[in-house]
Amino acid sequence: MIIPSIDIEGGRAVKRIRGQRGNYIFQGDPLELAARFRKAPLVHVVDLDGAEAGGLVNISVISKIAEILEGRCELGGGLRSLEAVERALSLCQYAVVGSLPFKNWPLFRRAAELYRDRLAVSLDYRGGEVLVGGWREKAASIAEAVRRLEEAGPYAAVIVTSVEVEGTGGGVKADIDVKSLKRIARRVFYAGGVRDCNDVERAYALGFDGVIVGYALYVGDLKKCANWY
Question: Cα dihedral sign for 172, 191, 136, 97?
Answer without folding.
Answer: negative
